[in-house]
Amino acid sequence: MFLTSLLLGLVGVFCILDSRLLGRLNFERPLITCTIVGLLLGNLPVGLAVGASIELMSLGLVVIGAAAPPDMNMAAIICSAFAILTDASTETALALAIPIAVLGQMLGVLMRTILSNLTHVADKSIADGNFRRARSMHIVWGTLLYSLMYFIPIFLAVYLGTDFVQKLVEVIPAWLTDGLNLG
Known about the structure:
By secondary structure, this protein is mainly alpha-helical. The chain contains nine helices and no strands. It has helices at residues 2-16, 30-41, 44-58, 72-86, 90-95, 97-127, 131-160, 162-171, 174-182. α4 runs parallel beside α7. It is globular and about 55 Å long.
């Protein structure tokens, strides 16, 4: 299970870096992500079924301004892995999609908050003439933090199993979830 968790965590890293570092190759779409998970785990039909369902759920999400939508890509990877690894039905896996997507949304807001502070460090570095440090703030640290934002939850969810994910989602206070949804 360790190797599977590691591999799926790396798939998550590749997918999150798609629009941030690689251009826009659409590896961030749930249908594509679940197809990759299905291929890696040896059950393409389940990967496609979960991916198509989560893709349909995410079609209505429109990002306006600085709004952070639920992270359907993280949900896609974890839910498709859950469906394949536990032989659960697509419907059972999809029941976890929204809570996981909201958890991913909260991680995304936290990460953007941290990265905005790195921008101030980069600005100061530029003012001081330290361009190498400014470049590393955006390219190295931004990439590393986004990678960890995906790798750690996906690795833990797959490695520790669905009970871990359920308990983690239940721990999120309602005021935080309501506040993010309102925002």
